[in-house]
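Filed under: proteins

Residues; backbone shape codes:
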Amino acid sequence: MSDLKEAEPAARVGVWDPFVRYGHWLLVIAFGVAYLTAEEEEGGPELIHVWAGYIVGLIVVLRVLWGFVGPERARFQNFVYGPVTATRYLFDLLRGRARRYLGHSPAGGAMVVLLLLSLAATVVTGLVAYGDQGKGPLAADGTPLMAVAYADEDESGRQRGRDTGRNGENGEGAIGELHSALANITLAQVILHVIGVGLASAVHRENLVRAMIDGRKRLDS
């Protein structure tokens, strides 16, 4: 009879709190829905696109606040490193010898910050573009959220001026184009994030997707 004992599973410890985990996956869903429903109808963007954008914006704001008042691993001071440290970690990761971090790695932390900034910029430009159509919280006449303003052109022709001057002849203003560009930049960052998670999972031999679901990671390095 062999004296060798079966290896015990490595101890796992809680790292990500429920807000970080649920907020992460809700943000994934909301951004995905917003991106896939970005095609505008004749009267503007689809309602589902608008509300998905609102949800993205709300989560971003809450996550930023959580980065200052949340648990240790959720705070920016725990995972925001200088650009040199983040770059060095990334090169080490590509060579398969990067140091393992229990929380976000330097490169992972940098991606969190970049994504939050890109998402915030995308939402803000979307709100401004929506407001140029006389809708949403930034509507020119201060209409309530989601109220439809400028339904009919008024006698002064302000609606015509807005459509042809601000948004151009094709109805696509500079802010709208910037909004679309930022959405594409954010998508590119998401793809890089997914690749980075896959690479880090392989190098450190742990399932980081699972960790963002149950909140637990291997304790030993």
Remarks:
- The longest strand covers residues 12-14.
- The two ends are 32 Å apart (CA to CA).
- Residues 54 and 123 are 8 Å apart (CA to CA).
